[in-house]
Amino acid sequence: MVRPVVVGLDGSRESLAAADWAAREALRRGLPLRLVHAYEGLPPDVSELPELEAPRYWAGRILRAALDRLNEQYPQVYLSGEQIARPAAEALVSAGDGAELLVLGSRAFSGFGGFMAGSVALATVAHVRRPVVLVRAERTAADEHVPDAGGRPSEREPYREVVVGVDTAHPCEEVLRFAFESATLRTAPLRVVHTWQPPRLPGPADVQAADAARTEAEQALTALVRPWREKFPAVQVSEVVRIGHPAQELLHAAADAGLLVVGRKARPGRFGTHTGPVAHAMMHHVRCPVAIVPHE
After folding, report:
1. What is the pTM of this model?
2. Residue 169: CA atoms inside 13 Å, Cβ hemisphere, count?
3. 46 Cβ contact partners less than 8 Å away, ≥ 6 residues apart
4. Closest CA to 122 of 272, 270, 288
5. Are 225 and 192 in contact (CB under 8 A)?
6. Residue 68 pLDDT exceeds 70
């Protein structure tokens, strides 16, 4: 079965930027694109009162406008759209579970507005069983590429690197697979980042233990990445081991990235919006698109 790329719409600038990114990703992957707009209106067989039809009418306008724009800009992509009369997070989780990946618009931590911000995005990411990509409003197609010689955005230049954060103590194939595939689709370099904390021991033993721990961390990362280098020999890979807090180090590493990939431990049956501290920080503070990949 062919899984589509699915994008959630709410009419905001963020969700429109997400739809553009999703269309480009569907092109890269050779997949259809499905647009979903959720609204908490009544189903058509409940009432014919005009005032109760308003949510469905505005949902239809948002969906039709997006379909028309994407059809014009990306004629090679097979598009479909659907209005879903269910709460937004519930509808997006259901749609995302049947997708190759789900794409949502995302505001910064202090932002306010449409349903893609705040609790709905958090609830969706926390419960969907497929990768979710969050896209900011200001991201354009040119921003996926390195600047030209004059420092200007240009789609003619190579793609920016893909960055993935990993924990060698908890290897997760799904996260590395997504990162390597994304780098392959873009012919982009891949940077694999692992952070660690040095042991705290008194005296000269502290320095020796820290050096040994760093060497062990580098060896563990090399061993983790080696089979993926063999599966994807065309990908230019760099391995980075940093001392520090994972969220801070990933924020630094992703400053010039085209895509950041992080994992989220799947918690079947859990309620709430817990996504883990690193994924949570990346959702709110990274400017480039962020892919959050669930893993066991």
Report:
1. 0.89
2. 3
3. 52
4. 272
5. yes
6. yes
Phi first, then psi, for residue 82 (nearest 5°) are: -150, 135
The residue extents of the domains of the chain are 5-135, 148-295
Give 158's DSSP letter.
P
pLDDT for the residue numbered 266: 75
Class (C level, CATH) for 148-295: alpha beta
SS3 state of residue 224: helix
Neighbours of 232 (CB within 10 A): 17
Higher-pLDDT residue of 289 and 108 is 289
Do the domains 148-295 and 5-135 match in fold? yes
Q: In sequence order, which residues have a C-beta less than 8 Å from that of residue 206 and are 6 or more positions away? A: 198, 199, 200
For 85, list phi and psi in degrees, rounded to 5. -85, 70
Taking the chain, what is the end-to-end CA distance rounded to the nearest angstrom?
23
- CATH assignment, 5-135: 3.40.50.620
Residue type, 74: Y
Per DSSP, the three-state class of 43 is coil
Q: Beginning with the edge strand found earlier in the chain, give each strand of the sheet holding 33-38 in spatial order.
A: 79-84, 33-38, 5-9, 101-105, 132-135, 290-295, 259-265, 162-165, 190-196, 237-243
Residue recorded with tokens 């890979």: 237
DSSP 8-state symbol, 272: S
**What average pLDDT does the segment 162-172 reach?**
91
The C-alpha atoms of residue 105 and residue 151 are separated, in whole angstroms, by: 27
Write down the H helix ranges in the chain.
13-29, 50-73, 88-97, 119-127, 173-186, 204-231, 246-253, 277-285
With tokens 């553009």, the residue in question is: 20
DSSP state of 117: S
